[in-house]
Amino acid sequence: MNGHIHNTDDRRELQMARSMCWHCQSEMAGEYFCDRCVKVQPVSKDLDYFTCFGLPRRLALNPQTLETKFYELSRAFHPDFYQNKSDEEQTISLGNSAMLNTAYRTLRDPIQRAEYLLDLEAGSVKDIRTTPPADLFEEILELQDTLDEFRASDRASESASTLRTKLHADRATLEQRQRDIEAQLLQLFSRWDALQDRGEATEQARTERGRILKEMRDILSNRTYVKNIVNDLVATIA
Amino acid sequence: MAYSEKVVDHFNNPRNMGSFKKEEDGVGTGIVGAPECGDVMKLQIKVENDTIVDAKFKTFGCGSAIASSSLATEWLKGKTVEEAGKIKNTDIVQELNLPPVKIHCSVLAEDAIKAALADYQKKADSK
Question: Which UniProt keywords apply (chain B) (predicted)?
């Protein structure tokens, strides 16, 4: 989870380090291929996924654009096209393809995309830790008790049927909660994107940035808790 | 990935499952969660004369999380409040032989102990 934390200085250094072609040592202007000798270049492991796809760090994303770029890069890096090339190039092609696949999987899913963005931005925002949702925890543990009781009960009994009714109602409530959470997330996504689009570097923008990220972190955590208990609930009463 | 024997044992025969009344005298409650996996853990201690006389837990989560909290309650009993604060997640990792992907479960247990101790202290101080 925390493997993507970046430090701006490190990144600058890495980009400098890879600004030279590994093969002909000429300076690199192009992204993934050397202009002079046309050799494929390793995608730095520290290059973030958004940059990898040439996308701004926004949360709303056109899946079509992402897919098109993914296919384009997949073709460029695919190991099949490097079978007759040197060992170095084959290794680079494999590494780049693996990185590209992970990047695509991560960015394609809105939740994973947001989680990833939070990891990326974690370095720039202090105290992105979540506030534990005490009420939700209590609710989850209470529901867990009811589930245990239901599991231990004789399914044909009257008490089991009362429990089942209660659990079905709980399920409906929780699923509504899930929908609310997703709606809240979408709202935060557009707030984030609007802020990114404005690109202001003011103190106020920084504060707003931090606030959005923290809120997003909290909501994503709550989403995981609720999702877990819903899965358990559904599996038990199914 | 296979669970270690000790994890399976705690999972199948959890020690000290249950809860105390939060308001009860000398009871400290810690409820913590792991946002990465959605596990929730409640750990409670009952303190008399600075010694933990009883401990209980309730955990909603994977086998390792249950085992970690079950083990924690076992260890807590008989310890003084000060000794309890010294329990480290690494001790739990070692005892249960947890694999790297499950280390956060032991961290959760340590957090739960800390939260329960803090809650106990807060209640004691407000008297």
Answer: Iron, Iron-sulfur, Metal-binding
Q: Do A164 and A205 fall into the same domain?
A: yes
User: What is the edge-to-edge ordering of all strands in the sheet holding B39-48?
Assistant: B27-34, B39-48, B51-60
Token representation of residue A51: 């940059």
B58/A contact by beta carbon, under 8 A: yes
Contact call for A220 and B60, based on CB within 8 A: no
Q: Interior CA angle at A119 toward A14 and A140, to 5°?
A: 165
Residue pLDDT, tens place only, B22-72:
999 999 999 999 887 889 999 999 999 999 999 999 999 889 999 999 999
Structural domain containing residue A144:
134-237
DSSP class of residue B80 equals: B
User: In angstroms, what separates the C-alpha of A67 from chain B's closest C-alpha?
Assistant: 28
Domains of chain B: 14-125 (3.90.1010.10)
Considering the domain architecture, whether residues A227 and A145 belong to the same structural domain is answered as: yes
Cβ–Cβ below 8 Å for B60 and A232: yes
Q: What is the pLDDT of residues A161-170, one digit of tens each?
A: 999 999 999 9
